[in-house]
Structure formats: structure tokens, C-alpha cells
Design brief:
Layout: H1 3-24, H2 30-35, H3 42-69, H4 73-98, H5 105-110, H6 113-147, H7 154-169, H8 174-203, H9 207-216, H10 233-249, H11 252-258, H12 264-299, H13 308-315, H14 319-352, H15 362-390, H16 395-406, H17 408-419, E1 422-424, H18 429-445, H19 447-451, H20 460-474, E2 476-480
Antiparallel strand pairs: 1-2
Helix pairs in contact: 1-7, 1-8, 1-14, 3-6, 3-8, 3-12, 3-14, 4-10, 4-12, 6-7, 6-14, 6-15, 6-16, 7-15, 8-12, 8-14, 9-12, 11-14, 13-14, 14-15, 16-20, 17-20, 18-20
């Protein structure tokens, strides 16, 4: 496929996003940017959050990982559904009752100012690392498949894409993202269905026969029953539930969109609908992954992991399928990056820098918020370059592992606040939030010496949260709050 044609399609697609941003960003202010004036339609939010939850990592890495991990990722997805139910009926009522703009305001209300600041900083680090890892994956694919042949350096590609995201989120923030995410999720899911249909047609397979062929190749195993293995089904389901609770329920980016819905009941509908939809969509991605590996075996392709889907879509399919793949890929890129940039800007402005408490006029506050938005974009640029240097073969595994270290303290903070009535010695909270990930890191690094054949996988997040909870218990106050 001609790289000039593919690049032109990206430009046209981005022009469409700018038009949507222009239409939805009219009359926007800081409330529009942070929480969409609490007037978002819950159905649009639920549909758009599919794209944010999945991202380019799911679009490329989940199908690519089927060869090594079979359908084991569905175990984690079952856990996701449990997590969404907990968010809907435990966390959302709390956030709505306190009328929070930043969910970390709960920690200040419950424990104190340093607990609040600690939670906000943990989110900022966690989301910055996770979002840039997702961004890197898609930027790198675009670089290898299109822009290397045009002589465009990787740093220029990254810079241009970040400028695109800044342009359509600069004014409207969440108010705009609710609509652009809906558009982009539609394009991503359409690409998923069309690519799957083409491969089945090309190989002369129906849905049932495809499953039989995958089973014969040993790709369809869902439940791992080896207790010592990292992918043991109970570990994966439990980890999936807590990953969702942390990476969605106590994550400002995801909750920022849910809190933009006017009524609590509608926001709960959004969350439950998202849980059911994710089960269906992830199943489709795993099915596509099985098809891609069958195709790769038939054509004797050497590409594996994150490189398999791009290799087949761009070099072994007709041009119109290549175009659909590129549109779907960039549609998977933008929802995770634009929402993260907006949420990080919100958290820095509100939680760290106290913008709402400053005695400034609206114009000065908006100008300040825009400068912070540009600073966040620059941070994205630096971290994407770092990930380029690391160049991990499967970003989905790396992202979930990093989440175990970075989101664990948030899990412990919120769990202690919700499930106990104790106060804490606020000045010691930051030390607990640093110590727990360090202990978790050493446990992960030396687990073979400490645990023998038993392997700790994604449940490291839960261990990290428990260590934080225990640390907070040690510095609790005798008085209840």
C-alpha cells in the first residue's frame, strides 16, 4: 500500500476530528474541560469509554498475544466485569454524594491533605506511564509501516501526533472527548469486524469451522488450571477485577467521563453496560487473534506478537483493508491519549496546583490550564521516546505489569478509606505510598527465591494494595473518622 495514500487518509481522518472538536468546543470553559458541565449523555459516554479502555494496545497486542497465551486474556476480562459492578455500586455513589470534580478529593475529605496529594501524584505517574506506553505502540507501528519509507524521523512523527491531540482537546476537554471517543470507537470496532470477515472469507472458513481450526492448533484454551502458573484462572480473574477497580474506578481519566453524566443512575448504567460490552469486544479480539495466527501459519509468516496484525493487514490484504486497518488503528490511538492528557491536566490543575482555590478571573484560569496542558503533552513526548528505547515486544503485558506497581498504593488508600473508620497520621502517608511499591518490586524480582515454583503475576497489584493498607493501619489514629 502506497505510504502517501495512507498518510493522506490519516490527515483526512484528523480533519474530521477537528471539525467535531470545533462543533462541540464552542462556548467551552474550565467546567466543560474538566467534567463536561455534567451534561454528557450516558450512552455516548459508555460507548466512547470502550475505545478508552481498549486503546491501540488491545487492538494490536491482544490478537498478537494469542499465539503465546491462547485465549487466557478472557480470564482477565471476566474479572473486569466484576470490577465494573463494584465501581457502579460502591465507588460511583460515593463520588456523586461528595460532588467531586477530582475523585482524589475524597482522600482529603477522608484522611487529610497529604493523603490527597499522594493519591493525585500516584495517579499522575500511573496514567502518564500507561498512556504513553499505549501511545508509543501505535506511533511505532505508523512509523514502521508508513513514515520510515518517507524518511520521517520517529521524534517528528510523535510530535505531530501530539500536536493533533492538543488541537482538538485544547478548548473543549471532556466535553469534546465524549463525542470524538464515540466516533473513534465506532471506527475501531468496524475495523475489527471487517478484518475478521476478510480473513475468514480468504481462508474459506465459517465461524464454527474457524473455532475448530483454532482448537486444533491449541489456541482456544480459556482457563489455565495450573495453580503455580502466573496465568492460573483464579489469579487472572481476581487480578482483572482489581485492575478495573484501580485503572477505571480510582482513575481520574475514566471517572472524569463518568462524572460528566448528570445522574448517578445513568452513570451506573454506563458502567454496567461498559462491563458487558467489554466481554463481547475482547472475545471478538481474541477470535481475530486466532484467525491471524491461522493465517500466519498458512502463509508461513515470521512476524509475532505486536507485529503480526500490522504485517498481515498492510502487506497481505487488499488496499481497502489496509486503509480500514490504519483508520481503526489511529481510532484506537486517540481515545486513550486524548483522555489521559485531559485527565492529567485536570489533576495537576485541581489536585496539585489548587486552581479552583485561586482568586483569579476565569480568563486567567483558562490560560493557566492551557499552559499545563502543553506541559503534559511535552511529558508524553519524552516518555514515548523512552519507550522507543526500551522497545518491548508485547506492550499489553508491560502495561499491566507497570500498573501493578503504580496503582497499588491508590488501591490501598481507597480501600482503607472505604472499609475502615480510622483516621491516619497524614504526614506519614507519602512514605507508605513509596514503600509499598518498593517492597512489591523486590518481591517480584526475587519471587523465584522466595516462593519457589509459585509464580506471582498480575495479582502483584493486590499485594501492593494490601501492603499499602497494612502501612496505613500501622499509622492509623485511634479516633475514627
Amino acid at each position: 500500500m502506497n505510504p502517501i495514500v495512507l498518510l493522506s487518509i490519516i490527515v483526512v481522518y484528523f480533519a474530521l476530528l477537528l471539525w467535531v472538536a470545533y462543533r462541540t468546543g464552542k462556548g467551552s470553559n474550565n467546567d466543560s474541560f474538566f467534567i463536561g458541565n455534567r451534561k454528557s449523555n450516558w450512552m455516548l459516554v459508555a460507548f466512547g469509554m470502550i475505545g478508552t479502555s481498549l486503546s491501540g494496545v488491545t487492538f494490536v497486542s491482544v490478537p498478537g498475544a494469542v499465539g503465546a497465551d491462547k485465549f487466557h486474556y478472557l480470564q482477565i476480562t471476566l474479572g473486569y466485569f466484576i470490577g465494573y459492578i463494584v465501581i457502579a455500586y460502591v465507588l460511583l455513589p460515593l463520588y456523586y454524594r461528595l460532588k467531586l470534580t477530582s475523585i482524589y478529593g475524597y482522600l482529603q475529605h477522608r484522611m487529610g491533605r497529604l493523603s490527597y496529594k499522594s493519591g493525585a501524584w500516584i495517579f499522575i505517574v500511573s496514567r502518564l506511564v500507561g498512556a504513553t506506553a499505549r501511545l508509543y505502540l501505535v506511533v511505532n507501528i505508523l512509523q514502521m509501516t508508513i513514515l520510515d519509507s518517507l524518511g520521517v524521523p520517529f521524534i517528528v512523527t510523535t510530535l505531530v501526533i501530539l500536536l493533533m491531540i492538543i488541537l482538538y482537546t485544547y478548548e473543549g476537554g471532556v466535553k469534546t472527548i465524549v463525542y470524538t471517543d464515540t466516533l473513534q470507537t465506532s471506527a475501531m470496532l468496524l475495523g475489527l469486524v471487517i478484518c475478521s470477515a476478510y480473513i475468514m472469507n480468504h481462508m474459506g472458513l465459517g465461524v464454527v469451522e474457524s473455532f475448530h481450526r483454532m482448537a486444533d492448533s491449541g489456541l482456544t484454551e480459556v482457563f489455565n488450571t495450573d495453580v503455580n502458573d502466573k496465568a492460573f484462572f483464579f489469579k487472572q480473574i481476581l487480578a482483572g477485577a482489581f485492575i478495573t477497580i484501580t485503572m477505571t474506578g480510582i482513575d481520574q481519566e475514566m471517572m472524569q467521563k463518568s462524572l460528566s453524566v448528570t445522574k448517578l443512575k445513568d452513570s451506573q448504567k454506563n458502567m454496567v453496560t461498559l462491563g458487558v460490552t467489554m466481554l463481547v469486544v475482547i472475545s471478538l479480539f481474541l477470535f481475530l487473534g486466532g484467525l491471524l495466527h491461522l493465517y500466519g501459519q498458512q502463509e508461513q509468516l515470521s512476524a509475532v506478537g505486536d507485529r503480526l496484525f500490522p504485517e498481515i493487514a498492510l502487506n497481505h490484504m487488499p488496499p481497502f483493508i489496509s486503509i480500514i486497518f490504519i483508520i481503526a488503528l489511529i481510532s484506537a490511538l486517540f481515545p486513550s491519549a486524548d483522555g489521559a492528557m485531559t485527565a492529567l491536566t485536570s489533576s495537576l490543575c485541581i489536585d496539585i496546583l489548587g486552581l479552583k482555590d485561586k482568586d483569579w478571573g476565569n480568563a486567567r484560569k483558562e490560560a493557566f490550564r492551557k499552559r499545563i496542558h502543553l506541559l503534559v503533552a511535552f511529558s508524553f513526548l519524552l516518555l514515548v521516546v523512552i519507550f522507543k528505547i526500551i522497545n518491548d515486544n508485547s506492550m499489553i503485558g508491560l502495561i499491566l505489569k507497570l500498573a501493578g506497581f503504580t496503582y497499588g498504593p491508590l488501591l490501598g488508600l481507597f480501600a482503607f478509606g472505604i472499609f475502615t473508620r480510622y483516621g491516619v497520621k497524614d504526614r506519614w502517608v507519602p512514605y507508605v505510598c513509596v514503600a509499598a511499591p518498593l517492597v512489591s518490586f523486590f518481591l517480584d524480582k526475587y519471587q523465584a527465591h522466595l516462593l519457589g515454583d509459585f509464580q506471582v503475576g498480575l495479582e502483584l497489584l493486590i499485594i501492593n494494595g494490601l501492603l499499602t493498607f497494612f502501612g496505613l493501619w500501622l499509622i492509623r489514629k485511634k479516633t475514627t473518622k
